[in-house]
Amino acid sequence: MQKKSNRKIIPLLFTLFLFLLPALSVLTTFIPHNEEKYKTNAQVESQVFLDEQNQLSKVGKRLDNINNGLIPLNNLSSVKENSINEIIETVNDLNPNDYSTANWQEINKLKLTYITNINNASTIDDVNAFLIAGLAAINNVLTLEELDANDELNSLIKDDSSDDVKNIIIKAITAINKATTLEAVADLLTTANNDVDTKVKEELAAVQALQAAKDAAKLELDNYVKNPSIDVQTIITTAKKAIDSSLTIEEVTNLLTNVKLAIDIKVAEELAAVALQAAKDAALDAINDKVDGLNKSDYSQENWANILAEQAKAIAAINRAKTIEDVGVAKDAGLSAIEAVKTLAQIAAEELQAAKDNAMLEIDAYLAQIDSVSDYLMNIITQAQTAIENAKTISSLDPDFIKTKSGYSNTL
Fold first, then answer.
1. If you ran DSSP here, which 8-state letter would residue 159 be given?
2. Is residue 262 included in any domain, yes or no?
3. Do 29 and 38 touch, CB atoms closer than 8 A?
4. pLDDT higher than 90, residue 409
5. pLDDT digits (tens, 9 = 90+) for 288-329
6. Are residues 27 and 110 located together in one domain of the fold?
7. What DSSP character marks residue 229?
8. Claim to verify: residue 12 and residue 103 sit in the same structural domain
9. Number of structural domains in the chain
10. The pLDDT of residue 57 is above 50
11. Do residues 16 and 93 both lie within one domain?
């Protein structure tokens, strides 16, 4: 393949030519009588420059000719002619076999385009600009070797390639397109392949490490709670999906920490709920056992209804309780309310006691009417009081019965 270094140096040399052009014009104007001396100095300066560039460009020869006065500096026609020749010679120096058919057609198209632009230019500055642009455009057309290198690098880009790998390949393609020798292209291609291999291995290791962290985190969650509830299982399932979507090990670690904390909180809530429910169950059993232990026939119809109402009230209060302490309070209140409902026997005993109390009050009222109580009378009263205290029914507290019972019916 024809080396492209000559083409790449042309824009640089011609820029220098543009920079020197005004100075040369001034010198030729103001030193007409010292022209021979000026040409000698210009030759020396041009030769030093060309020696430094190792004679790599024909533009350098043109500059040498200009410095020697062989090419007029202010002749637009001459500048056009030389610029067109430079375009033609640059293309002629290339080997068509080094290019694809399409790219060789592109080079010839560029040649014709910039020759036309140069011919149509109205100033030397425009000519120079078209020349530099044309040479650069021709130089940027890729050879077959460059295309092959680009294709090889592009083949390294996969659907799942990372941005880093793509950037390595893109930078390599850019560098190869600017390369001036086959050796440089080969070196760049080798370096790019090595860099891609290294990066892919690094990324693979990172992916494997990330996957290992994900697997370990999910396994830890599976073993974190024995016999998890449905809610805890839901937390774990959701967490596993988030872990699978994590992009870094740090993200996995943070997720694991937060999920374990969420599980701890949920388990604590569930244990508290279990304890609360156990307390409620025990309290409900106490209320129901209390009622079940009662005999409906021992109560009036009204009071049995009251017992059932207190039972229902206690059950509702226990079920509403939010804490174990509240359950205890509701249970005790319910038991007390049920126990407070009186049986028929309790009511009868209370009524009997009331009747006894009234009978005693009658004796006290009788005694209050007597100024002096004899022993005989006191004995009768004592017997009457004993009869009242020993009475088993209200009917036995009848005053006539007491009188008969005491044996002194005529006294009281």
1. T
2. no
3. no
4. no
5. 999 999 999 999 999 999 999 999 999 999 999 999 999 999
6. yes
7. -
8. yes
9. 5
10. no
11. yes
User: For the chain, what's the residue count?
Assistant: 412
Query: What tokens does 367 get?
Result: 């005694």
**Least reliable range by pLDDT among 132-146, 264-278, 340-354, 392-406:** 392-406
For 5, 74, 105, 145, 399, the CA distances from 385, given in Å and listed in that order, are: 145, 159, 145, 138, 11
Give the pLDDT band (50/70/90) at residue 21: very low
Name the token pair of 71.
């090419």
90 Cβ partners below 8 Å, 6+ apart?
A: 6, 7, 10, 135, 138
Residue 380, C-beta contacts closer than 8 angstroms, at least 6 positions apart:
406, 408, 411, 412
Residue 395 has pLDDT above 90, yes or no: no
Give the pLDDT band of residue 400 (cuts 50, 70, 90).
low
Interhelix angle 163-178/144-155, rounded to 10 degrees, is 170
Q: How many CB atoms lie within 10 A of CB 156?
A: 17
Helices (H), 73-224: 76-92, 101-120, 124-139, 144-155, 163-178, 182-222
**Which letter does DSSP use for residue 73 in this model?**
T
What is the span of the domain harbouring residue 75?
A: 5-141
Q: What angle do CA 87, 88, 92 make, to 5 degrees?
A: 120
Report d(CA 182, CA 179) in Å as an integer.
Answer: 8
Residue 411 within any structural domain of the chain: no
Q: Is residue 181 part of a domain?
A: yes
List CB contacts of 393: < 8 A, sequence separation 6 or more: 352
User: Same domain for 288 and 361?
Assistant: no
